[in-house]
Amino acid sequence: MEKKKILLLSIAMDLQMIHSQGLIHRDLHSGNILQDNLDNAYIADLGLSISVNKALESGRHGVCGILPYVAPESLDRGQYTTASDIYSFGIIMWEILYGKSVSYNQEFGSQLQMEICHNGLRPAIINGSPQCYINLMKKCWENEPINRPSATSICEILTEWQSNENILSELTKSDKILKNIESTFIRTYPDDVYKSKFIECTASLYQDSELNELNITE
To answer: Where in this chain does the record put each Protein kinase domain (predicted)?
Structure first.
């Protein structure tokens, strides 16, 4: 668990730096996290990054990314803020905790997209997971962007964990439990589903569906 904490803090500090420059990454996922050793990590591939001001002005019918990492407001309306990156960070937290690629109990597609956006579906949590970790991860997953912590707040929380005896005890205890749990419910997918691709916004999907209904009626 110690290495996981250090890894998370490294990623959070990099994200804080990106946001401090007035930028939004927009394609944050584990494939864009580089490690030079087990104790350090860097956020890479800022090819889709955009300034905060420009993101506020843009309107889109779709986004580019990997479905489970994209925030609900981006999947639904193509809206991006720094909080959208925080949602992606929350998904990365899940992967670091369980040592698995993020998964759901269904295929990646429009149905999963609808469930994430409108029913609050998130990756499953295994019993015995550290509550302090789960609490922070769920805050990053909040459906409303305004309720998610900033990258600065996340860095402060993770730094505080390093010296809080109660937190350290909880993390150590949970780590031992998770090592003995067979996470068979975690589904595996082909590697190509974890590549960034164009995703049509759910608002556009609804509009297309309504237009098709009108055409059928007419």
So the answer is: 1-162
Q: How far apart are alpha carbons 161 and 179 in whole angstroms?
A: 21
The dihedral region occupied by 26, where left means phi > 0, alpha psi between -120 and 50, and beta the remainder, is left
Tokens of 173: 């205890």
Residues pairing with 62 in the sheet: 200
- pLDDT per position as a tens digit, 114-169: 999 989 999 999 888 889 999 999 999 999 999 999 999 999 999 998 888 888 88
The number of folded domains in the chain is 1
In a domain, 151, yes or no: yes
What does the alpha-carbon distance between residue 218 and residue 208 come to, in Å, rounded to a whole number?
15
**CATH number for position 156:** 1.10.510.10
Helix axes 2-20, 151-161, angle to 10 degrees: 150
Which residues are catalytically annotated? 27
